């Protein structure tokens, strides 16, 4: 599932299972980002020690053609991965990543990361990643996509609003040691 080329030769596509080492590399870089404690539920220290089998399974479970989740990456013409987003399908009655019960069938965007040199630039990497994520979710048949953002992550909140997401009114406590709140943002499928 490859998307059209963006400015600067960047292409958005789904990962392939055999790319697990690159999935690991990009995730570890994301977890070293200055706002990682606000943006991710995992820490670098927790996942850096995971065995190869963990990363192989993670990539296989989110690779092109999977039904439950899909990971998209933005890749330069030279093969560098410069951003990623993961979309999880949530079934009504299942538990979400926070341990809460999912009330309706929907998709959940997680793991958003774009390398600093590609954020907010003319190439539109983050927007293209979200376009791919939403297109995949809508094709899976959901009518609603959600994500959570820490109330101190103003840069992310601004992008999500620009991408059409609105605050739902649901708020959860922020990660232990970080405080604050995780705000749910949603977008409904436009028919």
Automatic annotation (TrEMBL):
Q: Name one GO molecular function term.
A: acyltransferase activity, transferring groups other than amino-acyl groups
- Key words, A-Z: Transferase
Highest rank taxon of the organism: Bacteria
The record's annotation in InterPro entries points to: Acyl_CoA_acyltransferase, GNAT_dom
Q: What sequence ranges are listed for the domain N-acetyltransferase?
A: 10-190
Task: Keyword check for Glycoprotein, yes or no.
Answer: no
Pfam families linked: Acetyltransf_1
| Protein name as catalogued | GNAT family N-acetyltransferase
